[in-house]
Design brief:
- The complex is a heterodimer of chains A (116) and B (109).
- Chain A is built from no helices and 11 strands.
- By secondary structure, chain A is mainly beta.
- In chain A, strands 2, 4, 5, 6, 9, 10 and 11 form a 7-stranded mixed sheet that branches. A 4-stranded antiparallel sheet of chain A has the order 1-3-8-7, with no helix packed on it.
- Chain A is globular.
- With 109 residues, chain B is an all-beta fold.
- Chain B is built from no helices and 11 strands.
- In chain B, a hairpin with a 5-residue loop joins strand 4 and strand 5.
- Chain B is globular, with a radius of gyration of 13 Å.
- The chains are: A mainly beta (116), B mainly beta (109).
Protein backbone atom coordinates (compact mmCIF):
# COMPACT_ATOMS: atom_id res chain seq x y z
CA UNK A 1 0.00 0.00 0.00
CA UNK A 2 0.93 3.64 -0.13
CA UNK A 3 1.50 4.03 3.60
CA UNK A 4 1.98 2.13 6.84
CA UNK A 5 -1.20 0.31 7.75
CA UNK A 6 -2.13 -0.72 11.29
CA UNK A 7 -5.02 -2.81 12.52
CA UNK A 8 -7.20 -2.77 14.40
CA UNK A 9 -7.66 1.00 14.68
CA UNK A 10 -9.23 0.58 18.12
CA UNK A 11 -9.06 -2.32 20.55
CA UNK A 12 -10.86 -2.69 23.84
CA UNK A 13 -9.90 -5.61 26.07
CA UNK A 14 -10.53 -6.71 29.62
CA UNK A 15 -7.63 -6.81 32.02
CA UNK A 16 -5.84 -10.14 31.76
CA UNK A 17 -6.70 -10.79 28.12
CA UNK A 18 -4.07 -11.15 25.41
CA UNK A 19 -4.08 -8.77 22.44
CA UNK A 20 -2.32 -8.74 19.06
CA UNK A 21 -1.69 -5.60 17.05
CA UNK A 22 -0.73 -5.74 13.38
CA UNK A 23 1.49 -3.51 11.27
CA UNK A 24 1.89 -3.58 7.48
CA UNK A 25 4.91 -1.42 6.59
CA UNK A 26 5.47 0.40 3.35
CA UNK A 27 6.45 -2.13 0.68
CA UNK A 28 10.22 -2.49 0.43
CA UNK A 29 10.97 -0.81 3.76
CA UNK A 30 13.65 -2.71 5.60
CA UNK A 31 13.31 -1.14 9.04
CA UNK A 32 10.25 -1.35 11.26
CA UNK A 33 9.70 0.30 14.63
CA UNK A 34 7.05 0.08 17.34
CA UNK A 35 6.35 3.01 19.66
CA UNK A 36 3.97 3.48 22.58
CA UNK A 37 2.25 6.81 23.12
CA UNK A 38 0.53 7.51 26.42
CA UNK A 39 -2.15 10.20 26.56
CA UNK A 40 -0.67 13.68 26.41
CA UNK A 41 2.88 12.51 25.83
CA UNK A 42 5.23 11.94 22.94
CA UNK A 43 5.79 8.43 21.57
CA UNK A 44 8.36 6.19 23.25
CA UNK A 45 10.44 3.55 21.49
CA UNK A 46 9.55 -0.10 22.08
CA UNK A 47 11.42 -2.23 19.56
CA UNK A 48 13.18 -2.24 16.18
CA UNK A 49 13.43 -4.77 13.35
CA UNK A 50 15.70 -4.83 10.37
CA UNK A 51 14.04 -7.29 7.99
CA UNK A 52 13.09 -10.25 10.19
CA UNK A 53 15.77 -9.62 12.81
CA UNK A 54 14.74 -7.92 16.03
CA UNK A 55 17.84 -5.83 16.67
CA UNK A 56 16.61 -3.89 19.68
CA UNK A 57 13.86 -4.66 22.16
CA UNK A 58 15.18 -2.50 24.95
CA UNK A 59 12.03 -0.38 25.09
CA UNK A 60 9.59 -3.20 25.75
CA UNK A 61 8.23 -2.45 29.24
CA UNK A 62 7.93 -6.05 30.45
CA UNK A 63 8.15 -9.66 29.34
CA UNK A 64 4.42 -9.52 28.65
CA UNK A 65 5.26 -7.62 25.47
CA UNK A 66 6.45 -9.59 22.47
CA UNK A 67 6.98 -8.53 18.85
CA UNK A 68 7.76 -10.49 15.73
CA UNK A 69 8.30 -9.98 12.03
CA UNK A 70 8.82 -13.53 10.76
CA UNK A 71 9.06 -12.83 7.02
CA UNK A 72 10.55 -9.38 7.19
CA UNK A 73 7.34 -7.61 6.22
CA UNK A 74 4.23 -7.64 8.43
CA UNK A 75 4.87 -7.29 12.16
CA UNK A 76 2.74 -8.20 15.14
CA UNK A 77 3.01 -6.73 18.63
CA UNK A 78 1.51 -9.04 21.23
CA UNK A 79 0.68 -8.10 24.79
CA UNK A 80 -0.09 -10.91 27.20
CA UNK A 81 -2.14 -10.65 30.39
CA UNK A 82 -2.93 -7.00 29.70
CA UNK A 83 -2.92 -4.45 32.52
CA UNK A 84 -4.62 -1.06 32.72
CA UNK A 85 -1.26 0.70 32.37
CA UNK A 86 -0.95 -0.87 28.90
CA UNK A 87 -3.70 1.48 27.67
CA UNK A 88 -2.06 3.71 25.06
CA UNK A 89 -1.75 4.29 21.34
CA UNK A 90 0.65 1.85 19.71
CA UNK A 91 2.37 3.31 16.66
CA UNK A 92 4.24 1.46 13.96
CA UNK A 93 6.76 3.15 11.67
CA UNK A 94 8.86 1.95 8.76
CA UNK A 95 11.80 3.36 6.89
CA UNK A 96 13.80 2.39 3.85
CA UNK A 97 16.85 1.62 5.99
CA UNK A 98 17.42 3.43 9.26
CA UNK A 99 20.33 1.23 10.33
CA UNK A 100 22.66 3.49 8.40
CA UNK A 101 20.43 6.45 9.11
CA UNK A 102 19.52 9.22 6.70
CA UNK A 103 16.05 7.86 6.10
CA UNK A 104 12.87 9.32 7.59
CA UNK A 105 10.44 7.13 9.51
CA UNK A 106 6.86 6.97 8.22
CA UNK A 107 4.11 6.29 10.72
CA UNK A 108 0.81 4.44 10.62
CA UNK A 109 -2.37 5.79 12.20
CA UNK A 110 -1.82 3.72 15.32
CA UNK A 111 -3.91 1.31 17.34
CA UNK A 112 -5.66 2.85 20.34
CA UNK A 113 -5.71 0.16 23.05
CA UNK A 114 -8.01 0.51 26.04
CA UNK A 115 -7.81 -1.98 28.89
CA UNK A 116 -10.88 -2.10 31.12
CA UNK B 1 20.90 10.04 26.29
CA UNK B 2 19.79 12.89 24.11
CA UNK B 3 17.30 15.35 25.57
CA UNK B 4 14.79 17.07 23.31
CA UNK B 5 12.99 20.16 24.51
CA UNK B 6 10.19 21.92 22.67
CA UNK B 7 8.80 25.35 23.27
CA UNK B 8 6.31 26.74 23.88
CA UNK B 9 4.33 23.84 25.36
CA UNK B 10 1.03 25.49 24.42
CA UNK B 11 0.13 28.12 21.87
CA UNK B 12 -3.26 29.68 21.14
CA UNK B 13 -3.57 31.91 18.07
CA UNK B 14 -6.20 33.52 15.93
CA UNK B 15 -6.66 32.27 12.40
CA UNK B 16 -4.28 34.07 10.06
CA UNK B 17 -1.49 34.55 12.60
CA UNK B 18 2.08 33.35 12.16
CA UNK B 19 3.96 31.19 14.67
CA UNK B 20 7.39 29.81 15.40
CA UNK B 21 7.92 26.55 17.26
CA UNK B 22 11.33 25.65 18.64
CA UNK B 23 13.11 22.35 19.24
CA UNK B 24 16.40 22.17 21.17
CA UNK B 25 18.45 18.98 21.42
CA UNK B 26 21.36 18.22 23.68
CA UNK B 27 23.76 16.34 21.39
CA UNK B 28 24.68 15.80 17.75
CA UNK B 29 22.02 13.98 15.74
CA UNK B 30 21.81 12.02 12.53
CA UNK B 31 18.45 13.37 11.59
CA UNK B 32 15.51 15.40 12.80
CA UNK B 33 11.86 15.13 11.88
CA UNK B 34 8.89 17.39 12.55
CA UNK B 35 5.46 15.80 12.87
CA UNK B 36 1.92 17.08 13.22
CA UNK B 37 -0.44 14.95 15.29
CA UNK B 38 -3.98 15.94 14.42
CA UNK B 39 -6.92 15.78 16.84
CA UNK B 40 -7.69 12.28 15.55
CA UNK B 41 -4.25 11.05 16.61
CA UNK B 42 -2.72 10.68 13.17
CA UNK B 43 0.99 11.45 12.98
CA UNK B 44 1.83 13.28 9.79
CA UNK B 45 5.39 13.74 8.57
CA UNK B 46 6.05 17.43 7.98
CA UNK B 47 9.77 17.65 7.44
CA UNK B 48 12.82 15.45 7.47
CA UNK B 49 15.46 18.07 8.13
CA UNK B 50 18.81 17.13 9.70
CA UNK B 51 20.18 20.49 8.57
CA UNK B 52 19.31 23.47 6.42
CA UNK B 53 15.95 24.94 5.46
CA UNK B 54 12.93 23.42 3.74
CA UNK B 55 9.57 24.86 2.77
CA UNK B 56 6.25 23.22 2.03
CA UNK B 57 3.41 25.64 1.38
CA UNK B 58 2.69 27.68 4.50
CA UNK B 59 5.13 25.65 6.54
CA UNK B 60 8.90 25.88 6.64
CA UNK B 61 11.60 24.52 8.89
CA UNK B 62 15.20 25.35 9.64
CA UNK B 63 17.71 23.20 11.50
CA UNK B 64 21.02 24.60 12.69
CA UNK B 65 22.80 21.40 13.59
CA UNK B 66 25.93 23.10 14.94
CA UNK B 67 23.82 25.01 17.46
CA UNK B 68 21.50 22.07 18.16
CA UNK B 69 18.14 23.57 17.42
CA UNK B 70 15.38 23.51 14.85
CA UNK B 71 12.54 25.92 14.15
CA UNK B 72 9.17 25.24 12.55
CA UNK B 73 7.38 28.23 11.03
CA UNK B 74 3.67 28.27 10.33
CA UNK B 75 2.35 31.22 8.37
CA UNK B 76 -1.25 32.35 7.89
CA UNK B 77 -2.53 29.75 10.37
CA UNK B 78 -5.73 27.86 9.65
CA UNK B 79 -7.98 26.00 12.07
CA UNK B 80 -6.85 22.74 10.48
CA UNK B 81 -3.33 23.48 11.74
CA UNK B 82 -4.53 22.74 15.29
CA UNK B 83 -2.99 19.76 17.01
CA UNK B 84 0.30 18.80 18.57
CA UNK B 85 3.60 19.41 16.81
CA UNK B 86 6.40 17.02 17.69
CA UNK B 87 10.09 17.24 17.04
CA UNK B 88 11.98 13.92 17.03
CA UNK B 89 15.68 13.28 16.61
CA UNK B 90 17.76 10.24 15.80
CA UNK B 91 20.97 10.12 17.81
CA UNK B 92 24.34 9.24 16.31
CA UNK B 93 24.62 6.22 18.60
CA UNK B 94 21.40 4.48 17.59
CA UNK B 95 18.41 4.66 15.29
CA UNK B 96 15.65 5.32 17.77
CA UNK B 97 13.66 8.49 17.43
CA UNK B 98 13.82 10.52 20.64
CA UNK B 99 10.78 12.74 20.95
CA UNK B 100 10.10 16.10 22.50
CA UNK B 101 6.99 16.62 24.61
CA UNK B 102 5.31 18.52 21.79
CA UNK B 103 3.76 21.94 21.29
CA UNK B 104 -0.02 21.97 21.50
CA UNK B 105 -1.32 24.50 18.97
CA UNK B 106 -4.89 25.77 18.97
CA UNK B 107 -6.01 28.00 16.11
CA UNK B 108 -9.22 29.88 16.83
CA UNK B 109 -11.51 30.95 13.96
Amino acid sequence: GAGVSQSPRYKVAKRGQDVALRCDPISGHVSLFWYQQALGQGPEFLTYFQNEAQLDKSGLPSDRFFAERPEGSVSTLKIQRTQQEDSAVYLCASSLNSFYSNQPQHFGDGTRLSIL
Amino acid sequence: GIQVEQSPPDLILQEGANSTLRCNFSDSVNNLQWFHQNPWGQLINLFYIPSGTKQNGRLSATTVATERYSLLYISSSQTTDSGVYFCAVESRSNYQLIWGAGTKLIIKP
